[in-house]
Design a protein that fits this description.
This protein has about 350 residues and is mainly alpha-helical. The protein contains 15 helices and three strands. Helix 4 runs antiparallel to helix 5, helix 7 runs antiparallel to helix 9 and helix 7 packs across helix 10.
């Protein structure tokens, strides 16, 4: 992980407790960058130092080559769990996990996917870091609801792109729709990823740390060249440099494409919920309606399992309209004829 190490406060404290010695000790650990040993002592014998718990979990995550994003998420999830009970996580057990899981649903109103992610972090911490047993029967993953995503028609996509607030927003929306990339993948595109000879775009380090190629539309290539000419600084390796002047040595963050969608939707007067991932769904659905097979779409999207891609069968108008409703085969009289 780059930069100053992020120290997890495995001894949590509430706002009302910040003046207490325990909170002062936790802040001292944060200032020390994790190098100082600060023990957790809440009446338990042989308390594990804060930095040791964090280091143990971090090492287990790094040994398994977890992504930086997942690593941060897992550590913060364990920190939140410990903060809820104001006790170090190695002193919490099954009863606390079950209570915490219920509260995530009932009080915080999190989705089943978000709760399952928190549970996965705790499961990793107890099994891999503390080497303790974990009962799946006692802490089951919740059943995930399956929701069909919102899909824009091609006319609505045209309207959305035309309503972009700035040329920069416009090229972001066009790239999302033309390639089907995820928001995070879009922000990390480099100039070197554009292969105009083979007419493909190389997606590096996608979800699951997998690489793939997607098609490069001739129309998108021309727009990208025009976008590059507009940039005030050309030394950046990133296709979409960050900051308001777009001349940073760092790429844009994921908020920029989200804001581009939000502004364009409002300006276009589209009533549907639209975010960057919506354009990924539109990309896949419109390809399927145009005759592309599921296997090709799976490869372009970077799905591991074809089952993930089959959701677009439920969204494709071509497939929905391919089978007639059984009502159409009934010989029904008009209501006015029946009254006569």
């Amino acid at each position: 992980m780059v930069g100053k190490p992020e120290v997890i406060r495995l001894l949590p404290y509430s706002p009302s407790e910040r003046s207490r010695p325990a909170a002062d000790a936790a802040r001292e650990v944060l200032r020390s960058g994790g190098c100082k040993s600060a023990e957790i002592s809440l009446g338990h014998k042989e308390a594990i130092p804060v930095t040791r718990l964090r280091k143990m979990m971090l090492e287990e995550l790094q040994r398994r080559n977890y992504s930086e994003h997942t690593t941060r998420y897992y550590i913060r999830a364990v920190e939140d769990f410990a903060r809820r009970f104001n006790r170090p996580p190695d002193r919490l057990g099954l009863r606390h996990i079950r209570e915490y899981q219920a509260e995530l649903f009932q009080k915080q109103k999190l989705s089943s996917g978000a709760v399952n992610n928190r549970l996965a972090a705790l499961r990793f911490f107890y099994i891999k870091t503390l080497k303790k047993a974990w009962s799946i029967a006692e802490t089951p993953y919740s059943k995930r609801a399956v929701h069909l995503p919102s899909i824009l028609s091609q006319e609505e996509v045209t309207q959305l792109i035309a309503s972009a607030l700035t040329p920069y927003h416009r090229i972001l929306l066009m790239t999302l729709y033309a390639t089907g990339v995820r928001n995070a993948e879009l922000t990390h595109l480099k100039v070197s990823n554009i292969d105009s000879k083979r007419m493909v775009i190389h997606i590096q380090g996608g979800k699951g740390r997998t690489d793939r190629d997607v098609m490069l539309s001739p129309k998108l290539l021309e727009e990208l060249r025009e976008h590059w000419r507009r940039l005030p600084r050309k030394s950046s390796a990133w296709l979409f440099p960050g900051n308001r002047w777009h001349n940073s040595d760092r790429p844009i963050d994921t908020k920029t494409p989200r804001n581009a969608c939000k502004e364009a939707v409002q300006r276009a007067g589209i009533k549907k919920q639209v975010h960057p991932h919506t354009l990924r769904h539109c990309f896949a659905t419109h390809l399927l309606e145009a005759g592309a097979d599921l296997r090709t779409i799976q490869i372009l999207l970077g799905h591991r399992d074809l089952k993930e891609t089959t959701i677009y069968l439920h969204l494709s108008q071509r497939h929905l309209h391919a089978t007639a409703s059984p009502l159409d085969s009934l010989k029904l009289k008009d209501w006015s004829t029946q009254e006569e």
